[in-house]
């Protein structure tokens, strides 16, 4: 099951609906749209934090804080750069660093006029954001289940390879080779340039 | 001019996942300001994380979570987008020295070489190093790997010629003798002192590809 590399997937309607709600929050402080975003994302952000070992009450509180930051920072959401899920992931990630590790998150400002720009942007960047993000979703869903399991465990659950091996009852080398296969496949589907 | 020396895939992945200490993240982010290729890679990795967030099984919120959050909205004003501004130093470094490295407290390290600490954490520290034009620095090695990102000017050592944006890794226990180019002073961000450990998550996920 290999996705056709040159046929851009259509952006999925749910992703487009989430982007539209986020724009409604930015443009008209739409509380109903915010409530929809909250119902979808808050339980997933809490799940993300729990998987990284955050205790339940702290994860609950940080998920609410993340959604408040979505409310106050909505004007910075730019669907040309990232979809709603990606943008909200970065807010949750940064808030976790700020609150639990008490560190700043060094980041670049994409509007900084001093950023060195590519004279000829690669084809991948020309691909519209919605389609690019849809390809990422497709890549994830097209992974064989044994590879997908290994990716999920080490991507979002912070489980060391040795522990994944014992949980799945396979040798460590198998975990590493599944990971290598999975990432190779995802990179190929995304038009990896390196 | 784009950079020619880049962070490994494992470092970019750990940066995207947020699984990295602040000094190391500052070195990666500073490189990103110079490098459209690595910015595109981080964008892809963040999209992967965003897609995964959508597909996570939900973890139920408290019954009153939505109501309590809605009640706080009126007290949470919108944050306007900050105006884009250029600074003397590229990328996120400016925020660590008020936009002006001269405002830091510099102290001499050896003749022609000064340093100013930006971040001191329990795992690593980040500092700026300024070498006068043509200075030959003392031969040295580090017990753990050290990262250098060139901000201005250029230097050369046993492993290459590094120009603005280049991300250099001085491996542990190897000996280095950086020499600043003759025509201009060289300003670098330098992260080290402790083992560079891209912990957890994507760092481990991608470590088989570390270059
Ligand atoms: Zn690069
Ligand atoms: Zn050194």
Automatic annotation (TrEMBL), chain A:
Keywords: DNA-binding, Sigma factor, Transcription, Transcription regulation
An example molecular function term from Gene Ontology annotations: DNA binding
GO terms (BP aspect): DNA-templated transcription initiation
Top-level taxon of origin: Bacteria
Sequence ranges assigned to domain RNA polymerase sigma-70 region in this UniProt record: 37-105
Domain RNA polymerase sigma factor 70 region 4 type: 134-184
PANTHER family: RNA POLYMERASE ECF-TYPE SIGMA FACTO, RNA POLYMERASE SIGMA FACTOR SIGZ
Membership in a protein family: Belongs to the sigma-70 factor family. ECF subfamily.
This protein's name: RNA polymerase sigma factor
From TrEMBL, chain B:
SUPFAM superfamilies in UniProt: RmlC-like cupins (SSF51182)
Residues annotated as domain Putative zinc-finger: 10-39
Every ChrR-like cupin domain range: 100-188
Listed Gene3D superfamilies: Anti-sigma factor, zinc-finger domain (1.10.10.1320), Jelly Rolls (2.60.120.10)
InterPro entries membership: Anti-sigma_ChrR (IPR012807), Anti_sigma_zinc_sf (IPR041916), ChrR-like_cupin_dom (IPR025979), RmlC-like_jellyroll (IPR014710), RmlC_Cupin_sf (IPR011051), Znf_put (IPR027383)
One Pfam family recorded for the sequence: zf-HC2
Name by which UniProt lists this protein: Anti-ECFsigma factor, ChrR
